[in-house]
Prior knowledge:
Order of helices and strands: HHEHEEEEHEHEEEEEH
Number of strands: 11
Strand order of the largest sheet: 7-8-9-10
Distance between the termini: 17 Å
Largest sheet: 4 strands, antiparallel
Shape: globular
Amino acid sequence: MLPTNVILALVNAxxxxxxxxxxxxxxxxxxILTNTPLTLLLPDDQGIANFASxxxxxxxxxxxxxxxxxxMGNTTMPSGNLPRTVLWNLVRAHIIIANLTLQDFRxxxxxxxxxxxxxxxxxxxxxxxxxxxxLNNAQLITSxxxxxxxxxxxxxxxxxxxxxxxxxxVLGSVLANPAT
Length: 180
């Protein structure tokens, strides 16, 4: 478990990048984040809102956690339901068990499978071009201002954070394998 000051430093770095909803989610990950080298893939607010819209009428059990109409920064998440364990597993699927720099991503061969905190789920490198690093369906967003990790310098670089353009398309895998 990371100390509160480290979690706050991560959250502040992510907020500075304009990823307000992702910052709220990371703030709740104290029990998940450890000193283990990790890479966090952080969808932007629009990507999360788009995902939530797709779930507007989704429910797979009576034990569900409403997404509600909670305001998240400049986005509003529409009504919809997913079990709490599915939501947490979806978050775990966005955390790679390794701290990867952009250069590391570019060096990985296409087809490389990357382990996530969700035990049986791996993310696949689909493209590794300098201007188009893509894992599964999501592209890492980089610019001159974000040439490396958004949370560079936090915890001596053992946790890397990258902005991705959408929520990873792993819900089917998460539902098929609910183990944590």
